Fold:
Amino acid sequence: MAILTENECRTLLKKVLSYSKADECQVSIYSSDSANVRFARNNISTSGAISSSSMAISSAFGKKMGVITLNDYSDESIQKAVKRSEELAQFAPENPEYMPMLGPQTYPAHGQTYVPATAAITPAQRSKMVEDSLNVSKQNKLTAAGFLQDSAASSAMMNSKGLFVYNSGTNVNFSATMRTADGQGSGYVTKDYNDVSKVDINAFSLIAAKKAAGSVGAKAIEPGKYTVILEPAAGIVLLEQLYGSLDARSADEGRSFLSKPGGKTRLGEKLVDERVNIYSDPTNPDLPATTYDGEGMPLDKRSLIEKGVIKNLSYSRYWAQKKGVKPVPEAANIIMEGGTQSLEDLIKGTEKGILVTRLWYIRPVDPQTLLYTGLTRDGTFYIENGQIKFPIKNMRFNESPVIMLNNLDALGKTERTVSGESSQSALIPPMRIRDFTFSSLSDAV
Amino acid sequence: MGISASMLSQFTAVGSPVVPGTRMRDVDVAIKKRMSDVALNAARAKGATYTDVRLGRYLNEFVTTRDKNIENIVDTESYGMGIRVIANGCWGFAATDKLDNDSIARAAETAVAIAKENSRIQTEPVQLAPQKGYGEVTWKTPIERNAFEVPMKEKTDLLLSVNDAAFKNGANYVNSVLFMVNEQKYFASTDGSYIDQDIHRIWPVFGVTKIDEKSGKFETRSSLSAPRGMGYEYLMPKASEKIKSQTTLYRDRYDMLEDAGAAALQAAEKLKAKSVEPGKYDLVLDPSHLWLTIHESVGHPSELDRVLGYEANFAGTSFLTLDKWKSGKFNFGSKNVNIVADKLQPGSLGAVGYDDEGVGTKQWDIIKDGILVNYQAIRDQAHIIGLKESQGCCYSQSWKDVQFQRMPNISLQPGKEKMSPADMIKNVEKGIYIIGDSSFSIDQQRYNFQFSGQLYYEIKNGKIVGMLNDVAYQANTQEFWNACSAVCDKDDYRLGGSFFDGKGQPMQASAVSHGSSTARFNGVNVINTARKI
Structure:
């Protein structure tokens, strides 16, 4: 089954709106075809194909709104859903923060999010890709577990004020963990792309295999403050806590790390090292992204942190109106500028430090300082005089990405990576950080 | 996600009562059986040696507030079919929301084709524990009041009153949410089961924020409610279900108004609380906190799929390896530690009649007198630990996700000797009494963990002397449970839990409860989490 095309979405959403009797009505639709293979113990464990779709109908009378979602698009079902969303809206108390729906918008040019070859992956191709990874595992006497998923999806939004927007995209995501037979070594790799032709399962699997073999015989070192090199897959899980928290309202309300005494905020202030530049750009060819947000606002290129200064916070339409500023939607994607050094160069330039390849189970500890805890996983190595000397046991950290980016020592080349926590992709460089705080040892491999 | 457009069709004016039974699409059980048989027959015709079908209608309702306003009322419905097969000894799965006979048959054929394709590289054929067919049976969560049939005004009035209660006591901001779930699941398999289940859950939550504008500091206090496998009756307070402590605690009925009022006062108190001195403390952990420690450090490591390596790429493996279980001597915890798995406990999130592969539910020991004695297994794992049948732990979050091993309720059994939390605190020389859950993190084999709470009270020489702040405790799982020196009796037993236990790829959420009475853990390492930016 194929995802809904722009014309199909337009026709269907028009029909939904034709049933509306509300002051305002907005309909969004998402359809996807995805398939996946999970593997473990050098075997396939589960595998499936899922075709699904979902529609959300928002009806409003004045400042009262009701929302219904459904996945049955028969005329009868849609008519009932529209009616029920209206009944729900009429019933709902008035929300003073309700904002009228947007009219037609101009959206940035849609990047190369949709790649036909990715949408056309067959069960046989999928099986072959997993077989390639299992072969690397078996040839290296390792045990592999992993996940391969590909999907094609489309989304569209239309409202009674004339707004219409359509996006489509494809994605292929591969991750694998390879472990030694004695359970003393473990390595990981994770990659995702819009275009399946960029996927080199053999090369990716070798990364995990090398880390697994290299992490056997880990030594315990005393927890404390260390210089660390965070590979992009490790750095992203802490950085996403920072760029995901750049919200104006919580800062203005005094309940954010960006709040200051007396009701002020850190917007426009230098918060981190001046080499930190983070922005979003949905048209970036290496990370093409959706061009509209949940309210239909266009997602343009925008700086979040420039030369260490907080440049933009997101403003909901309501909060922007209240504060007399332009609304700023959340970022479409995240791109952090890097330097020219490779990961190997960063290691060579490190006198004493720790190479962290993955961080895991990241949870907030203190929102006042954006303090997070979590652990290293699947390959952690001690560096001395520019060389990896030996694997070390995993450790728990308690650290704030704000403190971390103030202790920035060096940046490598930016690359596309995917978060093992949120599954979101970003362009992130490897980073060398001073005084990263580890608080205890873990026996986990 | 799904929608509970159900009751809404009857709303004509504010406060109109909802007429039950007006769901958007109530499908007759005979039709469900016919649709399921289409899938079973199509898969069999293509060579499947086993097939199960889950025809699911998943309804959610969220009512969300922000301060003085109802921010959102959202009803969701999702309806579709997931078909799982074994062909050539390999699993295959396909899901569709097109439910005409041709689409169902095509999905079944896709599932078989996937299984056959992948069987080419399979070296361990699936071994399925035998399961007798139950014929046509039904099961329903024993609720007193269907939350989906409660007038919306009653729900919005409750939440706005909750927020008001917090504002009256000085809160600066309040968010509150009512989250209601109804899973209408029809299961059929080639074993001869046709199982119709109607499952209900409810979770009321709030968060209160207090700000000290002068210093720029802020503190929050979240609700001490639990998600429950209950109807709206959970929100009908009863004096007999309250436990008086430093704050009021709740058994099987929750007083959301009272808790919100207390939360505002406590958030203000937290702003002035003493920052903890790091070091070793005896911890007295309330069930509203301990459930999460049980979940992470006992529930997850005793999942057999983790032990075997099926979750190695995401959730991780487990330190509770098979050799430790086989020894019959692995000292998981002290003699006070008795942990039971169950899918039966009334009012719990795990309680169902049958799991998502058609196995009747049950109860069994995981840790007995401190010793590891069992795991959590499903049909294709049972043989690995010598079981002749599954323990009934299979679950999928929706029709479109494949079912796999998920945690049943995992609960610490109460102590046998009469003991209240106050009795327990009397004997603590240097300790911290922790109420409510907050930050949680644990490594991928479940050794090293760190937890925080909502409220921390310092205990000195058997007395609570004041509130603390910036507390987190770190421990190794085995050391921690061996430091369990006492567990209060059954009068203190309460359930905690979550709707959102995440596991698997693609990740699926599962709802699970964890019961316990207040328990004491000696000499646990406490760190101070205060930093400056």
About this structure: Chain A touches chain B through 103 residues (CB under 8 Å). Chain A has ten helices and 23 strands.
